[in-house]
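Fold this sequence, please.
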Amino acid sequence: MHLGYREEDEAFRTELRRWLAANLPPPEKLREPKRSSAHLPDWARQWQRRLFDEGWLVPGWPPELGGRMATPVQQMIYFEEMAAGEIPRSLNPQGLSIVTPSIVEFGTEDQKERWALPTLRAELTWCLGMSEPGAGSDLAGLSTRAVLDGDHFVVNGQKVWTSGAHHADWCLCFVRTDTEVPKHRGISALIVDMRSAGITCRPLPELTDPQAADFNEVFFSDVAVPAENLLGAPGDGWRITQGSLAHERGMLWIDNAQKVRRGLDALFEMARRPGPDGSSPSSDPVFRDRAARLAVDAQAMVLLGYRGFAKFARGQASPEHLMLKLFSSEVERRLYLEGVEALGPDALDTTLPGPPLWKEGSWAFQYLRSFAGTIAGGTSEIQRNIIAERILGLPRS
């Protein structure tokens, strides 16, 4: 059993820290409000391109794909350091972490040259066409159709909760191409130009910030997509989605664990603050018990992540990452709820110390926002079903 990192791995960490110290964008840029998850301001494009050129964008990949052939352990160190510093690799995370790995894994050489490399170089941005009004997280229930007509597909249907669609250049869109086979086998993946005739994006403003819409409804009306834009073979969509979301979840636990740790630090700081009557939440034994439970859960999250990673590094399946997606999002939600309940009406005060997340806000705001974590990347309900069936071997409900 090894409870520490080898000398060469610590040397990798030192090299990364030195490079970041010399190249990191100014703090005000990193904290600049984001217009959407597919909008790249000039500084963000330059930053991602610098990471790509110097092998720090996807360290485990070869140099021509923005990496340096880092070992699995070194990749984990990389994500630990980036998460600890709240340093983004890209402001278009779905393009970098989901779409590009899918194209590299399932695409032709022409598709890799046309879409994967420009995306890595921050020249293109992406959205994901998955969720639909009538299907939600049940991808097998999607109804958006793509009918082959000569040398192109004709796409009709609607997507919803499509992050960054109004700013994205391209969409990796999952469509039904065969209605005569079981639902999950009739899905294909199309690469769709978001400037195509027949596409309408309708941003969904957020109640907390109407000016910062990220989610969209996207309507497809007789949209023509060249047949050469099919990713993989017809009917490969389900297989591609399993790879796509696996890419998203693979190291997501590290970022989530760091978020929870920062949230706990903020919770403990807030708990020491005296209230109007002079007492503080930290003097309440019920609060202390709940806070201790959260601290234990946070540590369990880290240990579960390392256990899953150890299996991954040995080439074994790691169901721990399926459990971590559910566990981490639920812990984060409970953490912010604890802060809201401890503060009472003061939870609406945006001037109080709070968790340093994506944007500033009150504890109440962060609690409401935490529900997004139980949806993105697969809802908690879907995750429970997957765990029950695939890990516990329970019958389908």
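The chain is about 45% helix and 15% strand. The CA atoms of residues 281 and 342 lie 6 Å apart.
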